[in-house]
Amino acid sequence: MISIPDDLVVDVHDLAATILDAHARTEPYFPGGQLVEINRGITSPTTLPSHVFAPEWHAAQIGGKKRVAYILKKDSSASERISIDTFASPQGVKVSGGKELTRRELEDVFWRCKTFNNGYVLAYVAQRVFDSLPPTAKLRARTSAKHEVVCKPSDVTVAEIDIVAKEACLILDHEPRPDLGPSRVNLSQHMTGFDGIMPWVFLLIGEPKSEDLETDPRVVLDLVTSQLGGRGGGGEVFSLERAFDYHEKVLPNVANELEKYVLSGKIRLSEDALRARGDALVEVVMGRLGKIASGQDNFCRYCGKEGVQARCSKCKKAYFCGSCHTLGWKYHKVWCS
């Protein structure tokens, strides 16, 4: 039985990192794919022939829309799921122009793949976690712009909007099949932003005190900004922003909104497999919240990984792993104390 104290204060930023970490360990689309090439349509791809690319890729070239293809290669002999640390191919990643990928750029590709087509599932998970908290618990949503909202778990609303992505993204995941022939592969292709309008979902946290974005104090939690190639204002792979900042400064970097968002009811996943996966993630996240409540808070505040040993050298409280302190500093420095 998971024990959650009645007076628990849940930091939404840390919760988002925890949800995404749990998701990356279980997502069904790319469990074993390693990145071998990034192609933006300027030069011919070298890992796979261009004729195997989806027809939409070539239509995008004609239409002039920005586009990018990520080519992943499965290793059928690998026994472990690919993580961010093993995502880049050991043989190197081919990039147009020959430049080397930074850790942040590699993360951008990793999370763009991991959050593909998972917006509603992850919003459902966050919603279910909030609903599972004691009514006397508190949510604390703090943004990189030093805006803070503290509210009850019930003060969370689902919002939906139609958007058009500014970049078309094609993910090709292939596995060599030498048993069928020297050049035979199993190939799956996944596309974002090629077919016009996309439904988008996010959560609004806080009490609704104004319909005017400029004075609305609520905070937007968008767990899949990375699917569009974007990041939050503090450099996170998700967005946690005051509503005005989200709609005026973050989302416009990667998408055009077609209309004002509309508030909707609770997310209900109709497909049994999706709902089962979402519920399983909720159990994992609630288990981790139970650990945090009991003092086992040594998880990375940037990537969500558990069992981290190093703490921030300034506040001596928050844990970070590897290069995450540098990547997470833009946000953490605002609240480091």
From TrEMBL:
This is MYND-type domain-containing protein. Gene3D superfamilies: 6.10.140.2220. Keywords: Metal-binding, Zinc, Zinc-finger. The lineage of its organism: Eukaryota, Fungi, Dikarya, Basidiomycota, Agaricomycotina. GO terms for molecular function: zinc ion binding. InterPro entries: Znf_MYND. Residues 300-336 form the MYND-type domain.
